[in-house]
Structures are given as structure tokens and as C-alpha cells.
Amino acid sequence: MAVYTEVSDDALDAFVGQYDIGGVVSCKGIAEGVENSNYLLQTERGAYILTLYEKRVDPGDLPFFLGLMDHLAARGLACPTPIVGQDGKTLRSLCDRPAAIVSFLSGVWHSRPRPDHCAALGEAMAEMHLKGADFPLRRPNSLSVAGWRPLFGAIRDRADEIAPGFAPLVEAELDYLDANWPADLPVGLIHADLFPDNVFFLGQRGEAGAERVSGLIDFYFACTDLLAYDIAICLNAWCFEPDGSFNATKARYLLSGYRRLRPLSESEMMALPLLARGAAMRFLLTRSYDWINTPAGALVKRKDPMEYLHKLRFHQNIAGPGGYGIE
Ligand SMILES: Nc1ncnc2c1ncn2[C@@H]1O[C@H](COP(=O)(O)OP(=O)(O)OP(=O)(O)O)[C@@H](O)[C@H]1O
Ligand SMILES: N[C@@H](CCO)C(=O)O
């Protein structure tokens, strides 16, 4: 459970008193997520999400994240809207952490998404890319190719705790990614963490095509980067089965859904295997870092780095976009 910071009743009442959302009815820690402390806040006016920003979020980036959600929500994308306080601000401080309240979105996420969910995800991601195109702020992706080597440097000494032979394997892959990472693909606003738990669906469950995306959440890795890299992250996060096998049908649906709204160039298609290797490396490294560094006693379930080592190996053997079910 991702609650790193406990909030006392008095501190919460004083905090919520700075908004026009009524008094606190209840506030419960949310048993999902690994990055920040999240609470489901029920007030006299309705349901909200209270987030206290923790370790990996740079406070200097918060105006970007909150401004982005505001921008996308104003253009009709289903995403949380930051709530403005009586002082006109969305960002303030609680228990010595930066904190904000955002709107609550209904829906459920699917731990085993079907192909039709992947198609809907593809469309929603393309809609986000299009609606983010005129967002005026920029934020470089600190977890892209230039950030991976320093991240690995921070865990290299304990790399054998992840897997025997982990260090040389990662170093060889980093050399390859550094040498081949594309520089000339379309760039824009990307989510960069669009995993199934960050995409909510509503509608008739169980019936293919009957559910619609009701919300994208967790914009706290959003940045300015290659648009196709966002797709590569999703190929990793949505298209592998629990037994580790790759589901090319899901990949085809995901890419077709995306291309219905935003066509992909030939160069973007050809770059997908490389971008997917990079995306696998990103989550392999952050999960490895967390595996080694999560504080004892934190109410959080660590995510398995080995899942991403397996995915990396899969993409290393893909020659072109045909490997993802498309030509
Ligand atoms: N706006 C929202 N509406 C409804 N539920 C939300 C909202 N924001 C967050 N949640 C709930 O809180 C959980 C954790 O949120 P979030 O994914 O932002 O946390 P996180 O710590 O950044 O996690 P991670 O980066 O691991 O996905 C979500 O799975 C969801 O259940
Ligand atoms: N979605 C990430 C956690 C947040 O970065 C993962 O599954 O590793």
C-alpha cells in the first residue's frame, strides 16, 4: 500500500479548509501505487484524491504535472482536474510534503486487459498526444536514454541481488541503446507510465467493445519525448501475458486503435523494437532500484524487476514491426 506519510486529522482539516469543497467526511489511504501517498478523500461535496508527493517527484516539476492535467481536462480528455484552493493555487504543502487535491474519476482498471481494451487504450493515448500538442510547458524525460546509466550506477554494486550476471547484461544493453537511440522521430507530450493500473474503464463488463476509457490517471512521469516511446511503454505493459508470452493480437489492436487517431510514420514503426527495448530497460532499472532501496516498513508492494528482464530479452529478438503483429 502506497502510504509513506500519515496525515493527522487536525492537519487534514486545516488543509481541506483551504478549499471550497466542504468539510472532511472520511479519508482513507489507497492500497495501490508505489510512487506517492494517495488518499481517497470524501468531503461534504463529493469524492477527491489527495496526493502527497514523495521521493521521486521533483517539486519543481509539479506545476508541469498539475498544469498538464488542467490543460488536458479542459480539452475534454478524461483525466483528473486539479482542484483550485481559495487562494487560486492547486499546489500547497501538507506534512512537509508538496500536496494537491484532484477530482476523483470513476471506473475500474483491468489487470488482464483484453484486445478490445488495448484498442481503446491506443485511441485514448493518441487523443492525449493530440490534445497535449499545444501544452506550452516542456519537461525533458529524466528517465530516458541519458538517465539510465546514472540510475544503473546507483545500484551497480548490488546488482547481483537482482540476478547473477545482471551488471554486464545491463551494461551491454545500455551501450546498444546509447548508440542507436533515435533522434529524429516526432516529439510531444507523453504520459510515460501508461500501465493498465493508470487507465480506467466504464461500461458493460465482459462484453468485447462495450467498455470505454473513463479516465487516464497518474501523470507524474509525463514529459516531452518521442511520441512513439509512449506506445513502446504500452506494448510492454499491456501486451504480455502472465506466463511471459507476448500477445501479438493485443499489440495489433493497440497499434490499430492508436493509428485511427494519429497515423504513425514509417520511421516510427521501424523504431518500435528499439523503443520497446528502451522502455523495458527503463522499468527494469527503476524496479531494480526500488527492489534494493525500498525502506523497511513502507506499506508498499515492490514490483518484480525480472518481469522486465524477460521483456527486454523478447524485444532483443524482434527484427521489425511485424513482430508486433503489424506490417
Ligand atoms: N483521480 C483519481 N480518481 C480515482 N482514483 C484515483 C485517482 N488518482 C489515483 N487514484 C487511485 O489511486 C491509486 C494510486 O494512484 P497513482 O497510480 O497515481 O499512484 P502512484 O503512487 O503514482 O502509483 P504508480 O506510479 O505506481 O502507478 C490508483 O490505482 C487509483 O486506485
Ligand atoms: N508503472 C511502474 C511503476 C511506476 O513507475 C512499474 O510498473 O514499474
TrEMBL record:
Pathway: Amino-acid biosynthesis; L-threonine biosynthesis; L-threonine from L-aspartate: step 4/5. Its EC number is 2.7.1.39. SUPFAM superfamilies: Protein kinase-like (PK-like). InterPro entries: Aminoglycoside_PTrfase, Homoserine_kinase_II, Kinase-like_dom_sf, Pseudomonas-type_ThrB. This is Homoserine kinase. It is an enzyme of class 2 (transferase). GO terms for biological process: threonine biosynthetic process. Pfam families: APH. It comes from the Bacteria. Belongs to the pseudomonas-type ThrB family. Residues 27-264 form the Aminoglycoside phosphotransferase domain. Keywords: Amino-acid biosynthesis, ATP-binding, Kinase, Nucleotide-binding, Threonine biosynthesis, Transferase. One of its GO terms (molecular function) is homoserine kinase activity.
